[in-house]
Write a structure and sequence with these properties.
- The protein is an alpha/beta fold.
- The protein has a single domain, classed as TIM Barrel (Alpha-Beta Barrel).
- It has ten helices and twelve strands.
- The protein has a twelve-stranded mixed sheet.
- The chain is globular.
- The two termini are about 25 Å apart.
- Bound molecules: S-adenosylmethionine (SAM) and iron/sulfur cluster (SF4).
- S-adenosylmethionine binds next to strand 3, strand 5 and helix 10.
Length: about 325
């Protein structure tokens, strides 16, 4: 079975935010003072599993758990274990994770045991003080320890770096060299105008086409057709053994090939990261509805998936999304 949207894009990738909570407060993601949702509003693990089952029946092949920080969700491994069983008998082929890495030291072994072979770790700098600054209080040692533990357990790591104005623009070559020496592919991401944080988005945003041009002078990039199922465009260089990716929602729209939808921790299905529309599944899950009804709603949601996002950043208009990134995950 295949899930296809109104523009005939095949949708086989589901991202699930398993919690809105996080042990960090990255300045482009959250405000310093955040209010998190009461537990009763968050889908239970059983509800997440049932919703996932319906998506998998309809053709979803890849699930990414995200957040907030997915590893702060209690019993997250139990959910992964259950999803992993489904790989034997359903459409599901891969379960992966986007994490800030702080808790990987504790969880890498269990992740690997439960079929997680690749993860994305978010890291915007390799400088201890700057890391503490961008995350507002994080300790980089926890991330390095976590990455080492994941490596020991043979989990393949891709590093995600948000390029933040006047913060890490000058450091990207260092990040490339560090990633290269540790054999982690590295993807740069443009700041996206989700709900307001504590500084205006136009003071955070760096267009990645300009960064690409500068780095290309050093690395003489060659475009690859590699695709990990996400929105990044990947490049290789004779000087590197890793791939460098660029995720450029603002400077180079990639919506034409979008293959994904996102469920928030409260069960809202967002058909597009850069739009405010959603279909709410929590009440459906909590009423006496059949799986057929859930599938019908999923198909309906896909039939109204928008053609493209509405992201825009400039100093005059502020078309912010009405939610922070932790609602749907990256
Ligand atoms: N806590 C996990 C982490 O940081 O990897 C998962 C959730 S986090 C919201 C997912 C990704 O979104 C991270 O790579 C993060 O850097 C990125 N992100 C958060 N806010 C963003 C924004 N406004 N624009 C672009 N990327 C953002
Ligand atoms: Fe937490 Fe990830 Fe957001 Fe940073 S980007 S505050 S680690 S959810």
């Amino acid at each position: 079975m295949e899930l296809v949207d109104q523009f005939l894009r095949k949708i086989n990738y589901l991202r699930i935010s398993v919690t809105d909570r996080c042990d960090l407060r990255c300045v482009y993601c959250m405000k310093e003072k955040m209010e998190f949702l009461p537990k009763k509003e968050i889908l239970t693990l059983e509800e997440i599993e049932r919703l996932s089952d319906n998506f998998i029946d309809l053709g979803v092949e890849k699930i990414r758990l995200t957040g907030g920080e997915p590893l702060v969700r209690k019993d997250i491994i139990k959910l992964i274990e259950k999803l992993n069983y489904k790989k034997n008998s359903t459409n599901l082929k891969e379960i992966t994770l986007t994490t800030n890495g702080t808790l990987l030291k504790n969880y890498s072994y269990e992740l690997k045991q439960n079929g997680v072979n690749r993860i994305n770790v978010s890291l915007d700098t390799i400088d201890e003080d700057k890391y503490n600054q961008i995350t507002r209080f994080g300790k980089i040692k926890n991330v390095f320890d976590g990455i080492n533990e994941a490596k020991k357990n043979k989990i393949k790591i891709k590093i995600n770096t948000v390029v933040f104005k006047n913060f890490n623009e000058m450091e990207l070559e260092n990040l490339i060299e560090w990633s290269n020496s540790n054999n982690h592919d590295l993807t740069f991401i443009e700041v996206m105008p989700m709900d307001e944080t504590d500084s205006p988005r136009d003071l955070q945003f760096v267009p990645l086409n300009k960064i690409y041009e500068k780095l290309d002078l050093i690395y003489n990039f060659k475009k690859t057709n590699d695709n990990t199922g996400g929105p990044a465009k990947y490049y290789k260089s004779d000087k590197l053994k890793i791939k460098i990716g660029f995720i450029t929602p603002l400077t180079n729209n990639f919506c034409e090939s979008c293959n994904r939808v996102r469920i928030s921790s409260t069960g809202k299905l967002y058909m597009c990261l850069g739009q405010n529309d959603y279909v709410d599944f929590r009440e459906i899950m909590r009423s006496d509805r059949s799986d057929d009804f859930i599938k019908e709603k999923i198909r309906f949601a896909l039939s109204i998936k928008p053609k493209k996002h509405d992201f825009m950043i400039n100093s005059e208009i502020k078309p912010y999304m009405k939610r922070h990134m932790n609602v749907t995950g990256g």
